[in-house]
Design goal:
Chain B: Pfam families: F-box, LRR_At5g56370. The complex is a heterodimer of chains A (162) and B (270). Chain A is mainly alpha-helical. Chain A contains 8 helices and 2 strands, in the order ββαααααααα. Chain B is globular. The mean pLDDT of chain B is 84. The chains are: A mainly alpha (162), B alpha/beta (270).
Chain lengths: 162, 270
């Protein structure tokens, strides 16, 4: 890899091109390996595809670019505090459309920080909820028959279903 | 990446990671929201039962019973955490101990039992023979066993005992002696019954029994606790020399003469 390259181009699974800086790409292990293996100079015509859809990839890149400076150089406590606030705002997203994809992408791209953040966001949405509230929040179809439902209620008398 | 768009299509390890951030009750409710998830409630690696989340002890015990009964025994149990808050009848205590025994059968690594009421539960003695336990925290329970052969905790790294009644104070010695990997010790407010009263275990109550006992072992307690990193003790019944491997030490000074304390601080400063 030529040291002059500061940003690379990647393709989403929908075929759209995205630019990501090298320092941001390093937050993902597979991308980091790619950087080491593949030629990313300007005349290189190979554009790697990341198996993440465009809408999700935009978010992932946004996260990487925000976190890269801190990951690369360390940061003061006030920066960490600011970043935490940014993370909370960043995760305010539509549960059905994007949270699932962010979880899958962070898992697939081995991005520990984003993965932990997305898991915590999902868990916070489940906290203190009844079974039917969880179904509503995550748009989960109730696929139990009424007999199965009755059986579960009998099995779990301490669980709030409604 | 596959084209799934439903949260229930998350791979099991990702879903389990999310569940690990929830209390047991919340994790079970989440599992029950979909067929795809429902089987996971039987293999949750961490079980935390807190009575305060329930309207009555009856509801609570029924819940513990359900979770334990449905559990897949072949799955390892990482953590078993039980918090009791109300005074239990003898019948209920028996039920609780059945569940503790069931949990111990799953070879847990981390066991915490808190009884916030009056130390009336005699904890199953097999807990001290569970060789997979690395963390053991007991508060407000009774330990009735005395025989050294009942203690074998080779993996134990963290031992926190607080408000524990020992039927025989010698057992505290046996216990520490049987934890060669111990790194973190907290020993506070441990008692023993004496002539119809419950008295703190102190050097006085051990003076007669332990020296005779200690001669059975080829090592001193100090040699045995050679991995100790941190100790937090109150009314510690043994010589402070036995904690001298610890790098951080907190001693409640109520029972110590200033002279011994100064000597000890001096020793650590060097």
């Amino acid at each position: 890899m030529s040291s002059s390259v500061e940003a690379i181009t990647v393709l989403s699974s929908d075929g759209d091109e995205f630019k990501i800086t090298v320092s941001a790409a390093k937050l993902s292990k597979p991308l980091n390996w790619m950087l080491e293996d593949v030629c990313f100079s300007d005349d290189c015509d190979e554009v790697p595809t990341i198996e993440v859809n465009s809408k999700t990839l935009v978010k992932v890149i946004e996260y990487c670019e925000k976190h890269a400076p801190r990951a690369n150089s360390g940061a003061s406590d006030s920066d960490a505090e600011e970043l935490k606030k940014w993370d909370i705002e960043f995760m305010k997203m539509d549960v059905k459309d994007i949270l699932f994809h962010i979880l899958m992408a962070a898992n697939y791209l081995h991005m520990e920080g984003l993965y932990d953040l997305a898991c915590q966001t999902a868990a916070d949405l489940m906290k203190g909820m009844t079974v039917s509230q969880i179904r509503k929040i995550f748009h989960i179809k109730n696929d139990f028959s009424s007999e199965e439902q009755e059986q579960l209620r009998r099995q779990h008398p301490g669980c709030s279903f409604d | 990446m596959a084209s799934h768009t439903n949260i229930t299509d998350l791979p099991d390890p990702v879903f389990e990671e999310i569940l690990s951030l929830l209390s047991l009750k919340e994790a079970v409710a989440t599992c029950l929201s979909s067929k795809q998830w429902s089987h996971i409630r039987m293999s949750l690696p961490s079980l935390d039962f807190d009575e305060s989340n329930f309207s009555s002890i009856h509801c609570f015990l029924q819940y513990v019973d359900t979770v334990m009964r449905l559990r897949d025994d072949s799955e390892t149990l990482k953590k078993f955490h039980l918090i009791l808050r109300s005074i239990c009848s003898r019948k209920n205590l028996k039920k609780i101990n059945t569940q503790i025994n069931a949990a111990l059968d799953s070879k847990p690594e981390h066991v915490e039992i808190y009884d916030h009421n009056a130390c009336n539960n005699k904890i199953p003695s097999c807990i001290f023979k569970c060789n997979t336990i690395t963390v053991l925290k007991l508060t407000g329970v009774q330990v009735m066993t005395t025989t050294p052969s009942f203690v074998d905790l080779p993996s134990l790294k963290v031992l926190h005992l607080s408000n524990v009644i020992f039927s025989n104070p010698k057992f505290v010695y046996n216990l520490l002696y049987s934890c060669p990997s111990l790194q973190d010790l907290l020993l506070k407010y441990c008692f023993t019954p004496h002539r119809g009263r419950i008295l703190p275990i102190n050097r006085e109550s051990l003076r007669k029994s332990v020296p005779a006992y200690a001669s059975q072992y080829p090592f001193s307690l100090e040699e045995r606790l050679k991995n100790l990193v941190s100790a937090d003790v109150y009314n510690y019944p043994f010589t402070l020399q036995s904690l001298s491997n610890a790098r951080t030490l907190r001693i409640d000074t109520v029972c110590l003469s200033k002279f011994i304390l100064l000597l000890f601080i001096f020793r650590f400063c060097n």
